[in-house]
Task: structure prediction
Amino acid sequence: MLIGVVDYTVGNIGSVLNAVRKTGATPVVLKKAEEAKAVDALILPGVGTYSAAHAMVQEFREVVLEKPTLAICLGMQLLFENSEEGGGRGLGVFKGTVEKIDAVKVPHIGWSYTHSNHWTVEGGYYYYLHSYGVLWNPHDETHVAYVKLGRNYAAAVYKSPILAVQFHPERSGKAGLRLIQNFFKHARA
Result:
């Protein structure tokens, strides 16, 4: 399986590439949307800042809507309507605004329990590194997992063929690799 990893050119994507290889898939770094034609699925990685990645990811909007896409951290945030970080409109795949998190410590760094009852994300501990997030809305069927940080924030949102997670599965050990593998299996179906 050929997986396109979008390179926003503002951060290190090495851990995402390594995680893809560990699942048995082949990663390809993408810098332009037309390069995505040959890939089976996309990953929008979680590195960089919203304002720096915003313009580039706009180019990938149509590809994201057509191909199975796993969006990680910043990648997830770029899929919402807008963000307080750096301003600007997101891709609008999911409803809501990305806002500064209301947590004891910001940025929120480390392992936190993720609550889920959806097949896309198993409940358990995942690694987080973020200062912004989307408030959990239990009435929004796209919100499939949450993390408690004083307030509840969306840990994962899903609308086929797109799964977006606030945590870093590529840094979340066996549970994270299982999530990536399950996403790839679903993408093949």
